[in-house]
Amino acid sequence: RLCVPFTLAALSAMATGEEISPALQDSWGDFWLFRFFVNAAGYASIVVPGFLLIQYFKRKNYLETGRGICFPVIKSCVFGSEVKSAHQEDGSLPARAEPTEPSTARQVFKLLFCAAGLQASYLTWGVLQERVMTRTYGATDTDPGEKFKDSQFLVFMNRILAFTVAGLYCALTKQPRHGAPMYKYSFASLSNILSSWCQYEALKYISFPTQVLAKASKVIPVMMMGKLVSRKSYEYWEYLTAALISVGVSMFLLSSAPNRHVSTVTTFSGVVLLAGYIIFDSFTSNWQDALFTYKMSPVQMMFGVNVFSCLFTVGSLLEQGALLESARFMARHSEFTAHAVLLSVCSACGQLFIFYTINQFGAAVFTIIMTLRQAFAILLSCLIYGHTVTVVGGLGVAVVFMALFLRVYARSRMKKRSKKLPPGETPVQKV
User: Fold this and answer.
1) In the prediction, which pLDDT does 409 show?
2) Average pLDDT over all residues of the chain
3) What does the alpha-carbon distance between residue 167 and residue 171 come to, in Å, rounded to a whole number?
4) Residue pLDDT, tens place only, 91-136
5) CB-based contacts of 289, cutoff 8 Å, min separation 6
6) Inter-residue contact 380 to 393 (CB < 8 Å)
7) Which has the closest alpha carbon to 164: 349, 353, 356?
């Protein structure tokens, strides 16, 4: 019995590059590697029976032979109600709703509204995320307080509110007739909650500015995978911006300050968790793109994914007994309760602002707003939590965001050029 905790403690210590202390040995169940496998086992206890049921209904040809009160539910979950749309021009986004005679003042007001909503939602979300994962609650002069450790509970809180908001929006507004088999949302849901878990957990090992820059450099592995797997071709400016992002991130990570706090030092565990976030998040976006070939709105996608996210996380939390433990933590610390609720509100509202901004102004404007948000998030984190950034690190951040803006500008120029191409010519594929 003693072999398992010591083995897991040794693995975690190797990952973080730290020696095993008696305190770590006592809390081996809190190591991220152990928690990852425990969470995965909880999800598997739901996924495996669900997979077997789906295979059973397909082998029995239930769509033609089934009947009874459960038939509509099983049909919707396993088979769907209509075929894919073969004529959807943009599978990931609905057509933008532009008025016939748009007023300049009205459009400017909408743009400011979208920018303010996105900035407020995600800047607050970033500040709260770092506060919850890196600071203690209930600290006094004699008591150091305690940290909240269960990242999965925070994912559950985010998803349950997003599920509620998306459900109400779909119920109150007219939506396309839904035809996708419900079980297909579970793939994007599983990768989405794993990427969110990695994102929260990584803050225990890296600083928030490092995490933001890692997200900004996600284009690099995407291009590598596109080149190796799909044999995609890229323009010279795409290679240039990817190289600039690499240089900027390297400058930031390799810069050091004499008074740099231990909690902001990037560890191997943090790098692994960031890699997990990028991998899972990339799968989520690609799978959702494939699902958009069915006739659905982005809010329907949000609802479907969050249905399974709530199911997976609450099932795993109940199996581990972590739901009650987190509820007790909330009861002990009212400040944490307020932070967790506000974190969920910002996450849900942010998703709605994303859909509205892309629908009204397109992906290019949205990317510019979110790139500015990342820069503001780094600045805000440094001001509030005292992260030290050297001159070299600051130049690295500037290089990364300069490359991102250059990428947005070049892509918009390529789109304008591709619209003027003669029929039959196809532009180079982009990431």
Assistant:
1) 77
2) 78
3) 6
4) 444 444 444 445 778 888 988 899 899 999 999 999 999 999 989 9
5) 91, 92
6) no
7) 349
What are the φ and ψ backbone dihedral angles of 176, each rounded to 5 degrees? -60, 155
Q: What is the mean pLDDT of residues 164-180?
A: 89
Average pLDDT over residues 382-408: 81
Query: What one-character DSSP code corresponds to residue 262?
Result: G
Nearest to residue 393, comparing CAs of 253, 205, 213?
253
Whether the predicted pLDDT of 346 surpasses 80: yes
> Are 322 and 150 within 8 A, CB to CB?
yes
Farthest CA pair distance, the chain: 75
Least confident of 112-126, 236-250, 329-343, 370-384: 236-250
Distance CA 249, CA 233 (A): 24
Whether 352 contacts 118, CB under 8 Å: no
pLDDT digits (tens, 9 = 90+) for 8-36: 443 344 344 443 333 333 456 678 889 99
Q: Quickly list DSSP for 272-309.
A: HHHHHHHHHHHHHHHHHHHHTTSS--HHHHHHHHHHHH
For residue 334, what is the DSSP state?
H
Cβ neighbour number for residue 297 with a 10 Å cutoff: 20
For residue 171, count other CB atoms closer than 10 A to its CB: 9
Whole-angstrom Cα distance, residue 47 to residue 25? Answer: 32
Whole-number Å distance between alpha carbons of 2 and 26: 11
Residues contacting residue 38 through CB under 8 Å, at least 6 positions apart: 316, 320
Contact in structure between 285 and 218 (CB atoms under 8 Å): no
**CA dist., res. 243 & res. 217, Å (int):** 10
Residue 172, Cβ density class (10 Å: 0-12 exposed, 13-18 middle, ≥19 buried): exposed
- The pLDDT value recorded for residue 251 is 77
All residues at 6 or more sequence positions from 308 whose CB lies less than 8 Å from its CB, including other chains:
185, 186, 189, 190
